[in-house]
Amino acid sequence: MLPIIFIVPIVQLLILVHAATLEMKNIDMYIVDKDLSSTSRGIVQKFESSPFYHINHHSFSMQDAENELKKGNIDIILHIPYGFESELIKGNDSGLQLLIDAINGTAAGLIQSYTQAVLADYNRNIMLKWTSPVIKEKPLSIEITHSFWYNPELNYQTYMVPGILVLLVTLIGMILTSLNLVREKELGTAEQINVTPIRKYHFITGKLFPFWIIALFELAFGLLIGKLIFDIPIVGNLGLLFLFAAVYLFAILGAGLFFSTLASTQQQVMFINFFFMLLFILMSGLFTPVETMPDWARVINIANPMAYFMRVNRMILLKGSGFYDILPEFVSVSIYALIILSLAVWRYRKTV
Amino acid sequence: MALNINNINKSFEGLQALNDITFSVREGELFGLIGPDGSGKTTLFRVITTLLLPDRGEVNLFGLDVLKNYKKVRQLVGYMAGRFSLYHDLTVEENLKFYATVFGTTVEENYDLIKDVYCQIEPFKTRKAGKLSGGMKQKLALSCALIHKPRLLVLDEPTTGVDAVSRKEFWDMLKRLQKKGITILVSTPYMDEASLCDRVGLIQKGNLLSVNKPENIIAEYQRELLSVSSDNLYKLVNDLRNDEDTHSAFLFGHSVHLTRKDRQASAKQVIKYLKDKGHERIYVKVIKPEIEDCFMDLMHEEDEI
Question: Considering its fold, how many domains does chain B have in total?
Fold first, then answer.
C-alpha cells in the first residue's frame, strides 16, 4: 500500500494534467480544393504551417471527404469551391465550406473557433493586398485586446494541477475511509472491537486520523510534484492552504464515515462512493466552470464540498488570496464538516 | 450465579430467533449450548455480550444488568466470535498487544492466564494473523479473548471446522481455564462435545429444550435403543422410517439407531420386518444411549409438537 500512496499522485498528475486539456493539438483536416488558385493555396498553406492542424488528405471529391468524416478518420473538411478566387476578385461574395465532426461538442466548438481565427487572419491579409493603395489606412474599428489575469499564458496545466490535487485529497479521504470501516464490518473485527470497553469516539478518531494525515501528506507531495514538474505558481500562503485542507478533510472523512454506516459490504460502499464522487467531481468545476451551470445546479453545488476546495485551492495557489478572501468558503466547509461528522457519529453504532 | 438469563426474546423481521430463553450459568461452570445451525446460539451470545439488544427480557451478569451496565460488562466478558475476527494484517503479537491495550492492560500482566494457549503460537508471533492456519487462528483468538482476564468467557462455535485432534486439544485447554476460575459459556453444533461440559442446554429454533447435566440427560432417556445394520444402509433407514412401529430412526456411522413406539425393544420384530423387505446380513443389538441419542430424541419430539 505504501508505494501506491506515492505512485497515485504522480500518475494522476502526470496523466490527467496532460490529457485533460482543452487545447486542441492534432486536428485532422481534409482539404477539398477545387479552385487551385493562389488564394486557395495560400489558405491551405496557412493551415499547413499551423502546429494545430494535421493535413493528411487532399482530393477533389466531397464524396470521399465526407466518407472519411463519417468513418471518424478526420475532424474537419475544408471545402474551397471552384471559382473561389475569381469571385473574390470580382468583388462578389465568395464562400468556403467547413464540415466539422461534432460527435464531441466541446472539441467541435474549439476546432471551429480555431479554424475561423486562421481564416479571419488570412482574410485580413488579402484585404490589405487587394484594396487600393490610396486607402491603405484601416477603416475605423474597435480592436479588442485582452490579457488573462492570474494565468497570463492561459496555461492549462496551471489550471489543472490544483484541481487534480483536490481530487486526490478527496479520493483518499472519502474512499479509503469508508472502505476501511466497512472492511472491519466484513471481517468481523468491528464486532470484536465492539465487545471491548473502547469508546465510540476513540474508535472513530483512531479510524479517521491516519487518513487525515495521509491526505494532507498527499497534498504536500502533490504540490511538490506540481512545482517541480509543471512549475505551477504558488502565489498564496501554503499555511492557509493546509489550514483549509485540514478543515475540508474533516468534512470528507465525515462523509466517508457516513457512507460506511449505510453499507454492510465493500461493494455497496464502493457504489455509494462512486455515485457521490462522480457528482462531486463533475460539478466541482474541475473540468467545466461552475459559472456555466444552470442556477439549480449551482444550488445543488452548495452540498458539494469539492466545489469549495476547488475554488479555494485555485484562489490561494494562483491568485494569492488571503484568509478574508476565502472566509465564505472556510465558514461553509466548517459548517459542512460539523454537520456531516455529527451525522456520521450519530449513525455509527456499537450495537448493531 | 455468574449469568442469569430471563425470558429473552428477539426476532428479526418476523422470524423468532430467540423465544423466551431462560437459564442460568453457575460461577466456574463450563456450560455448553448445543444446537443445529440457525438455532439461535449466536444471537443469544450476541445479546449476552452486549452486541445486540433483546426485544424483551433481561440478562444479568455477576449481578450487573447487561443492558444498563454494558460498559462494565464488556470488561468482564471475553468473547470469541464464531468467525475469526482479529486484524488479518497485524501480526500475532501485535493483535495480542492491541487487545491488551484496548482493555487497559498489558500482555505481561495476564501472561499466566494465556501462557498455556499462547505458548503454542508464540513461535509464529511475527506472522500476520491472516496467514495463520485454522487451529492457530483459533488459539490466537482465544488468547485475545483472555488477555483482560475476563470472568466469563463466551465462545461461539470454537470447534467448528477444526480437525478432531485440535478439537480435543481445545477442550482440554478449556478445562484448564475452568480450573483457573473462569466461567465458560460455549456453543457447538457437535453433540458429542456435550458430554465434555458440566451442564448443557439444548437449543432448537430459538427454543431452549432442556438444561441439565449430560449424565442426567442420558439417565432421563426413557426408550430402549437398538442399533441396526444391514447390507444396504440407505434402504435400511428408509425402510425403518416407513415402518409404522418406528418412533425414530437416525443414521449413526455405519448403523441406524432405532427407537420404537411401544418403548420396548423387540429385536425379533425388527429382524422379521427387515427380512420381509429383503435385507441381508441383518444385525440388531440393544445399546446404551449416548448423549447424541438423547438430543436426537428431544429434538425429534420438539419437531412433532
Answer: 2
Domain check: are B265 and B148 in the same one? no
pLDDT tens for each residue of B178-227: 998 899 999 988 888 888 899 999 888 888 888 888 888 888 887 788 88
Half-sphere exposure of B148 (CA within 13 A, CB side): 25
B60: contact with A, CB 8 A cutoff: no
What's the whole-model pTM score?
A: 0.74
B261 assigned to some structural domain: yes
- Enter the CATH code of domain A23-135: 3.40.1710.10
Distance CA B23, CA B60 (A): 11
Range list for CATH 3.40.1710.10 in chain A: 23-135
Specify the residue for cell string 472491537.
A193
- Are the C-beta atoms of A70 and A99 separated by less than 8 Å? no
pLDDT digits (tens, 9 = 90+) for A305-339: 999 999 999 889 888 888 899 999 999 999 999 99
Domain that holds residue B235: 222-288
Contacts of B88 in chain A (CB under 8 A): 187
Pairing label, strands B56-61, B3-12: antiparallel
Residue A343 amino acid letter:
L
Cβ neighbours around B97 below 10 Å, total: 16
Interface predicted TM-score (ipTM) of this complex, two decimals: 0.77
The residues of chain B scoring below 70 in pLDDT are 263-265, 302-305
User: Which residues of chain A lie closer than 8 angstroms to B77, CB-CB?
Assistant: 195
Which of B52, B83, B103 is nearest residue A197 as measured by Cβ atoms?
Answer: B103
